[in-house]
Amino acid sequence: MLLGLFNVTSILTNTSATAALQTLRTVNNQLDTAQQQVSSGLRIQTASDNVAYWSISTTMRSDNKANSAVNDAIGIGSAKIDVAVAAIDTTIDIVSDFRAKLVTATETSIDRSKVQSELDALKDQLVATATSASFSGVNWLNTKSDDNLAVLSSLPDYVVSGFIRSPDGTVQVDKTEIDTADVSVFNVGGGGSLQKDIRSLGGIGGFRNADPAGQNRNGYQQWEMTGPVTLAAGESISFDISIDGTAATNVSIDKATVDAALGTTDGIISDDDDYATVIRKALADAGLSSRVSTYGSSYSSSLLSIVSTEQSGNSGSSIQVTNVIRSPAATAGGFEDTPYQDAPGSYAQTSFAFTGPFQIYRDVDFTFDLNLPNTEEQEFVVTRDIVDAALGTADGMVNSSADLASILNLAKNRDGGTLSTSGVIVSSSGGSVVFTIDSSLYPDKGNRSWFSIDNVEDNVRGPNFDILDVDITDPANDLDNYINGLDMMLERVIKSGATLGAAENRIDIQAQFNATLMDNIEQGVGRLVDADMEEASAILSAKQTQQQLAVQSLQIANSAPETIMQLFN
Prior knowledge:
Elements: H1 15-40, H2 51-104, H3 112-132, E1 134-135, E2 138-139, E3 142-143, E4 156-165, E5 171-179, E6 186-187, E7 213-215, E8 220-224, E9 229-230, E10 236-243, E11 249-254, H4 255-262, E12 268-269, H5 272-285, E13 292-296, E14 303-308, E15 319-327, E16 341-343, E17 349-353, E18 358-359, E19 365-371, E20 378-383, H6 384-391, E21 397-398, H7 401-409, E22 412-413, H8 419-422, E23 424-429, E24 432-437, E25 450-458, H9 479-529, H10 533-566
Parallel strand pairs: 3-6
Antiparallel strand pairs: 1-2, 4-5, 7-25, 8-14, 8-16, 9-12, 10-11, 10-15, 13-14, 17-24, 18-21, 19-20, 19-25, 20-22, 23-24
Helix pairs in contact: 1-10, 2-3, 2-9, 4-5
């Protein structure tokens, strides 16, 4: 009886058929999945298959479409560069021929009018080459800026080189900039490589020919001698002397000092030269001979000088004589009076007058050399970037002495140091530019305080004429100037070619990278969503077999009610 509870046959519910049907449904679903993977080749087709993988793969496929568009854009950019490179190569050949014909024209027996005809033909070819160097309406060799290219910071164009997705999900198109101001051969406003160069800095506001040099002199005091001095036995002159700001030392002169210094026996000091000799002897007796020098006047018979030799070990440079006493009280020949001149040494300083505004154009700089005590000569450079940074402008204009002072303070040496941090501070006063040695770096005064600035030069080496204006038939035109100018033009065109060559190389590298990137993205997406076809095929076969078995099982389960019906027959 109990066993029967677990084996119930019902005419209402066929549990075996229900179980067989559920199994068949499951197998059918799995079979559908396997068939979809086999037919589509994808393991993940919709978001319901795997939300994360589907999202990543969909985004990356979209990015790959953008990369494909970038590839097309790179092709267009590459074509632009290729056209420009071909035109530059042709231009170099024509300019070389042009210069060669100018050299030929230096021969006195040559008919210059015939050579000029050839030059005119080459001019036409140069214009034709520059004009035709266009791709998709873009021409980098024949530019249309109304401004002279020299006054512009740049004349940028660009080619597309990449598509970038940042970690935060934002996207941007990467671009390779082409500064057409560096490439242009002819420009409407001038400044192309075959046009005259307006960038010369001239006198650089007065700086070029100033050669500023600051030189101070030793500190000294000077007295006017009022008459002979006679020291008898027991008489003396004493004084305190401070050298370079050090503590005062007492110095004494008596008859013995005078006679020993002058080789006499009468104790008489006749003039300023004798007085200088006597004081020199007294200073030596006091142990100060290395620190001071004494002189009679070379241009007057009455001036006595005591000068610091700047050997005291102190940074100062000065002489200070005080407490001059004669015993018994009498004249000291004017030495006891207030000095005729009191000139302590100070710090080196010099200046020059600003001569007028000037402009530093694109790619122009000027250099100068600085010499300071106990240091090697340093070369400094001022670039357009320094000018704009110092003045907060973008046009390279230097309008005043204050402007030039600000610029010079930021001049850079090869180690990146500035003029102001290297030991010379520049300021302006009125219409002058003032140079002062930095006492915090060079504290010694007097003769030890000095600096010099020289070799002020700019880097402008451009022609003073347009190639289209060359006319060798006019005797007023200098043929050597033309030849030198053509040589400069050729250098500029070659530089343009180098600029384009570098861009061409970068674009080629970027195109190869972009193609590889697209392949790698495709492979990465495949790893996420592609089906393993061997596995999918095996699963499909297995599921088809399971489906057949499930159908047979359902048929068997459905045959059970027939047995029950026989019970009622």
